[in-house]
TrEMBL record:
Bilayer disposition of the protein: Multi-pass membrane protein
Keywords annotated in UniProt: Cell membrane, Membrane, Transmembrane, Transmembrane helix, Transport
Residues passing through the membrane, by range: 46-65, 77-93, 99-117, 166-185, 191-217, 229-246
Xref: Pfam families: TauE
Protease keyword on record: no
Subcellular location: Cell membrane
Family under the similarity heading: Belongs to the 4-toluene sulfonate uptake permease (TSUP) (TC 2.A.102) family.
Protein name (database record): Probable membrane transporter protein
InterPro entries assigned to the protein according to its UniProt record, in alphabetical order: TM_pro_TauE-like, TSUP
Amino acid sequence: MIELDVLAWAVLACGALLAGFAKTALPGAGTLCVAIFAAVLPARESTGALLVLLIVGDLFAVWMYRHDVDWRTLRRLVPGVLAGMVVGAVFLGSSTDDVVRRVIGTILLALLGFALWQRRAKARSDAVASPSRAAGYGYGTLGGFTTMVANAGGPVMSLYLLSMRLPVKAFLGTTAYFFFAVNLAKLPFQIGLGLLDAQIFAISAALVPLVVVGAFAGRWLATRISQRFFEVAVLVLTGVGAANLLI
């Protein structure tokens, strides 16, 4: 049995607020939620607890950004994501918490470095090339893998969508539909691995109202944020989340 004191519930409450906010405003903040939940709950079980809250946040994000979706980008990601989720399920079932954290953190830092190099190269050139189909498969596979093992697929997808130069609302709408589908697909794996049982579900259910509050707060901010600030914030949050997983 998992026993939580007042401080633990307060920390989880902050994580739930941030989960809703990340879904409708700053996707990169989702990695911080992973760290918060893993600090209070056993790391593997924390993925199941957070998954329930992420799905709730997905529902609100899909509704709020239902008219702002780049379907072509989503279709390009599907094959790689499915492959990555299968590999991630196998990895999660055979790895320790420390290995999971360090692998995800290393992947995120490598992708962040590549994204910064890519943005710098584009700033020096008038030509802005869209990512290739192969890049879509690669990011999709990494996104499926990281979201399965640590609910940390948000930064991977954020870096890919930043390279697509999508406007803020299109970015958020595409992310919302992508993760709603992916997170629903993850449920059977999480239950089968024993990471989402009745007790973990009860903890998540108690935190759902805070996800809703965070989602509406995020929507309010998204209508007022500039494109440049949004892109910089996503990159910074990705770096913070990756570093935290490695510490």
